[in-house]
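Box 3.1. Reading complex inputs
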Amino acid sequence: MNLKGVKPVARVLAREVAVTAFLLLGVSAVVFGILYLAPGDPFSLLLEGQTSAGAPGQGVREALGVPKAWHVQYLSWLAGMFRGNFGASIRTGLPVLEEISRVGLNTLLLTLGSMAVTLLVAVPIALYAAVRGVNRVSFPLTMAAYVVSSLPVFWFGYVVIYLFLHTFGLFPVASGGSQGTNRLYLLLPIVVLGLGNGTLSEVIRHLREEMGRVLSEDYVRTARAKGASVWKHAFKEGFLIPVTEIVASKIPFILGGAVIVEQVFNWPGMGRMAWQAAQDRDFPVIMGIAVLAAVFVRAGSLLQRFVYIAVNPGASRETVERRAA
Amino acid sequence: MKRVSVVILFVFGMTVAVSAWAADSRKDGRPNGGTVNYGEYGRPATLDPVTSNEMVSLRITELVFNGLVGINEKQEIVPELAERWDVSKDRRTYVFFLRKDVTWHVRPGEVPKPFTADDVVFTYNVMMNPRTITPLKVRYEFIESVEKADDHTVRFTIKRPILNALAKFTFKIIPKHGPANPEYLTREDPFVRRPIGTGPYKLASVSGEGEITLAANDAYFKGRPHLDTIVAKPFADQNIMTQALMFNAIDMIALVNPRYLPEIQGDKRFVLQPYNALSYSFFGYNLRNPFLSDRRVRKAFTYALNRQEMLDSFFNGQGTIISGPFAPGSWAYNLDVTPLPFDPQAAAALLKEAGFSPGPDGILQKAGKKLSLTLKVPIEKESEAVKRVVLAFRNYLKNVGVDIKVEFEEWQAWKGDVFFEHDFDIIFATWVFDDSADISSLFLTAEIGPWKNNFGGYSNPEVDSLLMEGKLTLDHEKRRTLNRKLHAVLAEESPYTFLWTLTNYTAYHRKIRHVAIHPYKFFSYADDWFIEP
Amino acid sequence: MRKRYIQAPGRSDEASGLRFLRKADAVDLFFVGYGLLIVVLVAASYAAGVFRLLPYDPEAVNLGLMLAPPGTAGHLLGTDFMGRDLLSRLILGIQAYFLPGLLAVAVAIVPGAALGVLAGYGAGRADRVITWFSNLVDSFPRLVLILLVVAAFKPDIYFIMVVVGLTNVPATVSLVKVKIRFLREKNFIEAAEGLGLPRRTIVLKHILWHHCRASLIIRATLGMGEAILMETSLSYLGFGVQEPTPSWGNMVQSGANYFLQGNFWPSTVPALAILLSILGFHLLGDGLNNLLERKAVH
């Protein structure tokens, strides 16, 4: 890494963080706005929940005078969130943040695992197609990936479960436990989310385009002509950037897919909790999950930009924006 | 020297071995040890006996808590926390003499606390406190007051003598030092998730995924139960739960879905045991709707349904069609009243008699108004069977010209619509009874009102008088006669279309022995179960 | 990401030779053909559903013939868990997503194009604000946002599809915006303005119609594919169309209850329908896009 460019880099990084923070503020405004427009009075429930969740062990719900003005409501909710108080679930009465973090880890595992699976399959295919182009091998592979990733996840999951149970005769307890078969069963939703859900085809396409483009760049052809390692030169722009780029941009889709996959496999994660909350109209929980999901998405995006800047310390603001838009 | 130490070692070893091997504080010759994993469908919200209102929680509290008295397999009242009792001549005062050797489950770092009359009084006060959220208040309103006579004696005074009052004192006792709030119990109190009781099993842990591990209570006053641990494993999918049983990941399922009966029946590893559930399913009508207030219409609907076909197709025929408001396993059921047969012509005739004629689109109408009704159904966790019954109902009624609109609603919203707003025409539901013969809350005119059980608004003076007489009489035979009459009247009146009682089956691995199941509470006799070594 | 090619049309895919180009053309034509076939099938089935030209009554319950595999007793695709004909329900199920899908696409394209014009044409500030809003919308996983909306409003499918459309606005915005930037670079806009053409004509006729329409159509097909996936996913989760009205999503969901015991067809038939339809729309979009680029390259 280039130490000379640190100061301007720091400035760009700080700017990125500021933009992210501002975006997250916008996220909270959107979530608040939706609930504000909702019929009924979800806010008294939410704010009451925040007060009683903040005073655990008393089992008493004070009848608070809920402030009427919307900006006061918004600010008090926001303030509560910053203190880690997301209110209490209407259904179970437990603090929302605690509930979500309990299951959030499972969803994190699912998301990261599925990303790894997608990359494991997509990268070789994309590389091959980028280097060799369309031929008898790469075309069917790409088409197959396309079809597999278009399979509706909520059906694909059952097929996989069936195969797993009956073909391999392995059976896990679906709700936790640490036996060997259980570990294997954990792989199923990860594989299903990684292969289905439409991510695979998008990733292959993006990677192939980018890699192909970089491979045809002048500096790469020069390197090839010189006999130097193409890989070393092309790595940063042709591999690292496209991969982080596409992964970061796919996070929202993966989280959405996680909601469905968690239903199919009864995976105790944030997605299933969100579904339950939508059924029960459990506002505090679904709001908390929406906010946390957005945080996760933005964190991924921020990370990707950090990588980009780290790789191109001289990146101007314009380039960063252009790649992101 | 050496020989002596060897002998001592040998004796010591033998003693340890014998005591471990034959450790049998219940003195019934059966071995201790083993774990039973059982599959539960869904996770309980709370684990205490006061706030819980789900079957899942009920099964757990049965293992963790005791009542003043219990009911044995022969349906007789037996002492539990109370070793004996006195009933006054006017049947209005009950004095319970409590056991002196009972201690509460111990929390880590604490000393065992004895069970005293204070706990009984505490339990009653908490149960009846208006701020406690519990379905139990109605059941115990007959109690006027309770007082502690001394540390091991409690006196209950009831408002009026009632039949079989003793059986009502099976409610579970919670410790005074248990809940954080000394006056009332809500879901925020940590006690509801980490309860302590006096029962054969104590709560050892709850895993992140909701697996509840119960460990044997060595100090249980009836003797330590044989099984070391009982683990409740929650499944959100009945398919997978059944597969788990087949693959030995769990040892027992409390309630087997009828669809899987053939599969399990064929498997020699498992025992399929039926137990009587005091429950039945029905379609309930809102008599406030002018169409439904006509008895002929309701009866016509019953004729239009082919209940046997539904029972056979959806439940493998595992159940009994009922003709009246009692479960067939109940002593009150009147076997002389036969269920109406499937007769769409009779249905059509009755509807015609009630003044309906087919409209241009085939749907019956009267005075220009279509016979179009809304059926509201709660979205249950396993709603497959419910969905099928409901859709079949719609189809059968369509065949006689009645249009049914099906609405699935979330549980709380459904309860509000049915019991509070009374905004529905028909519902599909299942009543579960603990005292099978007391249906007064369902059909009394006095029980019409917000959040009361007579949601349909059924009012009939004859039924009212029969019900009141039954409540007041202390003669069991008289009561039986009254109930049989009630059965006949209500069958004719059809405020519900009574459907069936499904045969409940539990499935468990053969290695678990001496399994007796309580029809409602399931684990009441679990302290006697043991595992074949 | 596709914009990259529009931005720099000079860069062709040098990694392969002429043979690749010709073969790719055939493949893309195949994609487009398949896609069009699907579109026609879906539209025709929708019409059939509307006029109830169905082989069986989709609500006719037959308890004697539940979960029958395809080909039994005149049921071409078999029956579901109530003995109802799957083919009829499949055709009728298109109603659940057809019009709502069109609505989602319209909501994605019309405001999206408008905002894109604003961002591309207007001052840098408008661009920045619109970009910020785009990023904001993109921060939410679509399904989570919809669950939030469902929890708040308990809405019908049209409302939900409007939300889905709104979440697709950023994509349209960036498409139009980048196109405008490209045209600006090529001095096209300057020239048009210099010729004295009114701004409205420039925007509507020249930018949107001549230059963007192909991309917008492609966006529309992809958007429709996405709308189908969204509606079926929601119905699967239990939030969309309810029984007894069929939707491909709720058909898969009810069929799934019987899957693990070996009754595959009740859930597989609608799942395959979903697969083939979504694939059709996506391939149509991709094929058209590739053909477009070939044209641009040449």
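In summary: The interface with chain C takes residues 239-240, 243, 259, 263, 309-310, 313, 379, 384, 387-388, 390-392, 394-395, 398, 406-408 of chain B (CB under 8 Å).
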